Amino acid sequence: MVEKDSYQQWGLLQSKMKHKCIFGKKGLGAGQVFVYIVAALSFALIMIFGYKIINDFIHKGEDVQFLQFKTSLETSIQKIYTEFGSVREETFYLPGRYTQICFIDVTKPYDPDLCAYDTVACNFWKTMDTSSYDLAAENVFLTPAAAQQIKVFMIDVSPAHPGEEGFLCLPISQGTFTIRLEGKGDRTRIALPQS
After folding, report:
1. Residues of 115-137 as b/e, b for ≥16 C-beta within 10 angstroms?
2. Domain of 36?
3. Which of 18, 84, 113, 168 has the greatest CB tally within 10 Å of its CB?
């Protein structure tokens, strides 16, 4: 009888162990699925917020670079105008998305040739009520349009092509362009650099 009881106990023990193993395997599978779901959600959140943070960082860097360009351009033009006869060639750096810059002498009459280069600048110049520097909101235009208006000190523009009057448009290559600045005493003359 002892043997029979011990076999029964042994059988009962084995069946309990089988049930534990089976339940343990099912629980382990559900636990693994939960871990994979948590890992996938964590990865997705890191990717989404990481992309957003990196994208914001890049845009803030471009904003800083644009403000540095704007300040540098305004300062360079204002600094040389009183130095009559002084000539400097200066290179300016912008964010890479800009492809062209146009300078307009708003005191000159409207020239429709500008429309071939920059329609925004053309429309602005065409719709100005007066040819007064003080009333103009801006006189420098970028392509694509800049978020902030740029107005530099009074300029006199040497056109790039014969027949054009009152504006100068230059291509921006890899975020840089070079112009020639000449002090005229009461304004700054802007021209293409001499090669």
Report:
1. eebbeebbebbeeeeeeeeeebe
2. 1-195
3. 168
Instruction: Name the token pair of 76.
Output: 């360079």
* Number of domains, the chain: 1
Which residues in the chain land under pLDDT 50? 21-24
pTM metric for this prediction:
0.71
pLDDT in tens, 62-99: 888 899 999 999 999 999 988 898 999 999 999 989 99
Q: How many residues does the chain have?
A: 195
Question: What is the rounded distance in angstroms from the CA atom of residue 139 to the CA atom of residue 152?
Answer: 7
Q: Which helix (H) or strand (E) holds 170?
A: strand 167-171
Helix (H) or strand (E) holding 90: strand 87-93
